[in-house]
Amino acid sequence: MIRIKITALIYLGTLYSASAQEDLLSKEEAVAKALENNFGIEIAKNQVDIAENNASMLNSGYLPTLTATAGANYNRDDSNIEFPGRFVLDSLNNVVTDPNTGGPLPFPDVEINKAEAQRYSAGLNANYTLFDGLGRLYNYKRLKEQYQLSGLQARETIENTIVQMFSIYFEIARLTENKNVQAQALEISKQRITRAEYAFEFGQNTKLDILNAQVDVTNDSINLLNTNQQLTNAKRDLNVVLNQNLNENFRVDTTVIFIPKLKIVEYMDEVISNNAAILQTERNLKINEYDIKVSQSGFLPTIGLTGSYGWNLNQSAASAFFPGTNNQTYSLGLGASLTWNLFDGGGTMIRVKNAKITYANQELLKKQVELEVNRDMQNAMAIYENRLNIYRIQEQNVITNQNNFERSKEQFQLGRITSIEFRQAQINLLNAQTNKNLAKYDAKLAELQLLQLTGQLLNVAF
Question: What letter does residue 237 receive in the DSSP assignment?
């Protein structure tokens, strides 16, 4: 039993010395690391880049298209041409007699070997839509709004990540303060063992007081070890959010400063113009408005311009009757087209009607989101004020229990109260301190959630 106690105390001492060597991870540094390294934020930033690319002039349809073409063909022929029923004629067009047979001399066969022919061509074709019923104009504006929307979605991701990060950061801070409180409780319990042993040696108490003190030391040691394990796990959770080494060790800032209530009320008055969810509904409403105009562009004609420039080279082989030729041509073409879909079976009309219905739905959704955000904001404000009041009460409760503990300690040292009564005063103080720590960080987290609803989370100092 003694060996186990000594091992536990050595382990606890190692924890204290290790914590003393940890570097401070400030709130500002934690936010900076999250913004730089968090996977979710990186993905959101990439989505913004995609939306920005889509909203560029290169994706607008305003620029012409230019196509280059080229071709080459090669032919090689071996041929033997016969002339049945034809005879050789002299200069007077008389049939020449075959000296061997005495009959007419047949016209000789013509054999052409390795007759090569080549064909080469190259060309440029340009197309430009001069007018498309204003469809590309409104589609371009729609893409710009989509880019703004992606920025708001990225901002919402960042805000959620920051709140998540601080919920873990404050949990680490709470466990750190709890660990310090429990370490003090353990030290007091160890002092009780020493005092009980001295008192037993002088016959002032029984062995029971020593055993009670040893039980309390064991319980306090286990509580401290459990808290330290929870603290280690919480640090790993924060390392995941910050995308750094899971075993990265650090200590956090346990200082908490609350924003004045008047400032928060000022932020709440501007929620309509700053809340990310409301701003997203406004962007979606604008996108739906452009969708209507894009659909209406189907009622108007399309005017296009075309241009082409080409070069061709034909090299033909000689034949039985004609010599080979080289034919080289250059061509230039310009054209214009007008396309007007006078009736497409009603498809365009249906698309316009559906786009208008979607716009009306988005207007309703905007009103719903505004109502829900105002409800959530008022609830968050009530929760924040309640938690802040609880924290103030817990602060006073710590002072009361601290005074009670000091008085109980004096009475215990004078032998006027038992070790059980002293231990109860110690437990009351320990509970009051841990409850105060919990209330403090709960109130601060409620403040951050309220700031997120007002749209000011990224505009305040932490």
Answer: H
Question: For residue 47, how many C-alpha atoms fall within 13 Å in the half-sphere facing its CB?
Answer: 18
Predicted pLDDT at 9:
45
In terms of Cβ atoms closer than 10 Å to its own Cβ (0-12, 13-18, 19+), residue 85 is exposed
Strands (E), 85-223: 110-131
Of 186, 187, 189, the residue nearest 419 (C-alpha): 189
Q: How many CB atoms lie within 10 A of CB 266?
A: 12
CB 143 within 8 A of CB 291: no
Mark residue 111 as left, alpha or beta (left: phi above 0; alpha: psi -120 to 50; beta: remaining).
beta
Instruction: Report the C-alpha dihedral over residues 442, 448, 452, 457, rounded to 10 degrees.
Output: -170
pLDDT of the residue at 75: 79
Residue whose C-alpha is closest to residue 53's, from 153, 136, 155, 150? 150
Give the predicted TM-score (pTM) of the model.
0.84
Question: Rounded distance, CA 397 to CA 428, Å?
Answer: 10
Closest CA to 458 of 133, 154, 245, 140: 154
Tokens representing 430 are 């320990």
Q: For the segment 84-112, what is each residue's pLDDT rounded down to a tens digit?
A: 767 767 777 777 777 777 777 776 766 76
Distance CA 61, CA 65 (A): 9
Does the pLDDT of residue 404 top 80, yes or no?
A: yes
Distance of CA 56 to CAs 66, 147, 196, 292, Å? Answer: 19, 10, 80, 21
List pLDDT tens digits, range 250-307. 999 999 999 999 999 999 999 999 999 999 999 999 999 999 999 999 999 999 999 9
Amino acid identity of residue 167, one-letter, is S
Helices of type H across 243-346: 261-269, 271-274, 276-296
Q: Which residue matches tokens 């893409």?
A: 143
Distance CA 409, CA 72 (A): 104
Report d(CA 235, CA 245) in Å as an integer: 10
CA distance 104 to 4: 132
Distances (CA, A) of 457 to 159, 210, 382: 7, 54, 18
**CATH 1.20.1600.10, domain 2-37+132-301+345-459, yes or no:** yes
The token pair at 396 is 């006073």
Of residues 446 and 201, more confidently modeled: 446
- DSSP class of residue 179? H
pLDDT band at 43 (very low <50, low <70, confident <90, very high): very high
Please report the DSSP string for 207-265 in residue order. HHHHHHHHHHHHHHHHHHHHHHHHHHHHHHHHHHHHTS-TT---EE-----PPPHHHHH
